[in-house]
Design goal:
Elements (H helix, E strand, L loop, with lengths): L11 H11 L3 E3 L6 E3 L1 H20 L3 E2 L5 E3 H4 L3 H7 L4 E5 L2 E4 L2 E4 L4 E8 L4 H11 L8 E10 L13 E11 L2 H21 L6 E4 L11 E8 L5 E11 L1 H5 L3 E3 L5 E3 L1 E8 L1 H10 L16 E5 L4 H20 L4 E3 L7 H11 L3 E5 L1 H6 L1 E6 L5 E5 L3 H26 L1 E3 L3 H10 L3 E5 L4 H11 L2 E6 L8 E2 L6 E2 L2 E5 L3
Parallel strand pairs: 3-9, 17-18, 17-19, 22-23
Antiparallel strand pairs: 1-2, 4-8, 5-8, 6-7, 9-10, 10-16, 11-12, 11-24, 12-13, 13-16, 14-15, 19-20, 20-21, 23-27, 24-27, 25-26
Helix pairs in contact: 2-6
Length: 490
């Protein structure tokens, strides 16, 4: 157990904050509610971004960029959209400052004719743009993604999980038919599921949000839901079928093959730096961060150990040759040759940082052609023959990726339960937390009551996983076609 990390079973929230601090992922900024993402944290995001970007392009999408500022009038054009985001908007009202005796102040003569909204999401400005790009069916589909930052005013913030400004990607697509748009929405949901499980080793449940949890302005919202080690759910990604709502709001039409003028069909979808929070809470332990190898900034670190100056060059040369071998296999490797820190300190820091593999070499290892191997999630030392090191690292990185997913799946299964009545539902939440499947009558009134009385929300109506079969609502006794997924959430 790392001395500066609070044990999970003592204070989970403090443990989470300690991991972020000790692993050097992020810190609070001078602007309340915003964060500084440090190099290690940003390197994780870059690896996530790289993997996702390739998946987006493999499905036909292109990257573009749209303005940070949105005219206030744009948000008022789609009623549900403005209602959903009105309380989260940061508003620019003036264009310059003036010098005063006390420093600077807002120039009262610079008030904008129309206020600008700092981007909370980009549907409005993108659809105002798309109407200029689209005239006929030949201009469709438009498959565009942007990597950007957004601002949503938050009173209660937590690093990565909920901040006023965060990084994300937002896809925005335009289609000629409803069927194409729905297929796009489902396709991108599957991209997110694949990324979460194959790269983050984080199992998820896919499903549809209820009307009250739906994205503002969407006809349907699909989501991936993950379960953290403390039994709370995390919405890890969403994909929205927008119907023709934004096309109608911004008068975006096209002429079809028969010459008829129709409104375009739309989707939007996104994931954010919240995924880093999910990564921390899915895999990390009381010794620090644990990162799945596929998205680890450094997959293997080599630590030289020596006492005498004459041993240094021999050990360093041995380590450098090993590093080049690992790099030739595509492994992201670091040679920790910092002389101001002792090996023991380095071992502890690499563990806290979650580097998947540690290799140690000393004079005796050079003499005997050996290397000491340690896997972050296992912690067991193993002495390897020099000739087998590179292949062993390749195999173990792949195995660690699989093992982390298997462990997370087993934990999700262990913490997923069914409730057939309201009393048992509340008991499960209070004693165990986790995912709970239960029948619901489909009404917003019952949903609101459950949320108010238990703090649990319907995370999704599962698409495939989960118990099947009709029943009756655990509160109202009204018919229910299937059990839905409940949990307390971040």
């Amino acid at each position: 157990m790392a001395k500066n990390i609070t044990p999970r079973d003592k204070d989970y929230s403090q443990w989470y904050q300690d991991i972020i601090k000790e692993a050097g992922l992020a810190e609070h900024s001078p602007v309340r509610g915003c964060m500084v993402i440090k190099p290690t944290g940003y390197a994780i995001w870059e690896n996530m971004k790289s993997a996702l970007d390739e998946m987006f392009k493999d499905t036909g999408h292109q990257n573009a960029y749209f303005p940070l500022f949105i005219p206030k009038s744009f948000l008022s054009k789609e009623a549900n959209h403005v209602e959903g985001f009105a309380k989260e908007c940061a508003v620019v009202t003036h264009s310059r400052l003036i010098s005063t005796e006390n420093g600077v102040d807002v120039d009262p003569d610079s008030r904008l004719e129309e206020e600008l909204i700092v981007r909370p999401t980009s549907e409005t400005i993108i659809w105002d743009t798309y109407r200029n790009w689209i005239q006929s069916y030949r201009d469709l589909p438009i498959l565009v993604n942007q990597w950007a930052n957004v601002v949503r005013w938050e009173m209660r913030t937590r690093l990565f999980l909920r901040t006023m400004e965060f990084l994300w990607q937002e896809g925005h697509t335009a289609h000629a038919t409803e069927e194409e748009a729905v297929a796009e929405t489902r396709q991108m949901l599957e991209v997110y599921r694949t990324f979460a499980e194959d790269f983050m080793a984080m199992p998820v449940i896919t499903g549809v949000k209820t009307e009250s949890e739906r994205f503002a302005g969407a006809v349907e919202t699909y989501c991936i839901e993950a379960l953290m080690q403390d039994g709370k759910a995390l919405q890890a990604g969403t994909s929205h079928f927008l119907g023709q709502n934004f096309a109608k709001a911004f008068d975006c039409t096209f002429q079809d093959k028969d010459g008829k003028v129709k409104h375009v069909w739309a989707t939007s979808w996104g994931v954010s730096t919240r995924l880093i929070g999910g990564l921390i809470m899915t895999h990390s332990d009381d010794n620090g961060l644990v990162i799945p190898p596929k998205i680890a900034p450094v997959q293997a670190v080599i630590v030289p150990v020596y006492r005498k100056d004459e041993e240094r060059e021999v050990v360093f040369e041995y380590a450098r040759v090993l590093m080049q071998e690992l790099k030739s296999e595509g492994i992201r490797v670091r040679f920790d040759d910092r002389e101001q820190f002792k090996p023991g300190w380095k071992f502890a820091q690499h563990e806290v940082e979650g580097i998947p593999v540690r290799l140690t070499v000393g004079p005796r290892d050079v003499q005997n052609e050996k290397v000491e191997f340690v896997r972050r999630d296992k912690g067991e030392k193993k002495l390897l023959d020099r000739a087998e090191v590179t292949q062993h690292v390749v195999v173990q990185l792949a195995q660690m990726q699989t093992d982390l997913l298997d462990a997370a799946r087993a934990r999700m299964k262990q913490n997923t339960r069914e409730a057939n009545d309201y009393d048992s539902f509340k008991q499960i939440l209070d004693e165990h937390g986790g995912f709970v499947y239960a029948h619901w009558d489909g009404t917003s009134e019952t949903e609101a009551r459950i949320k108010e009385e238990t703090k649990a929300t319907i995370r999704c109506i599962p698409l495939s996983s989960g118990p099947e079969g009709a029943g009756v609502c655990m509160i109202s006794g009204k018919p229910s076609t299937k059990k839905v997924l409940f949990a307390r959430a971040y």
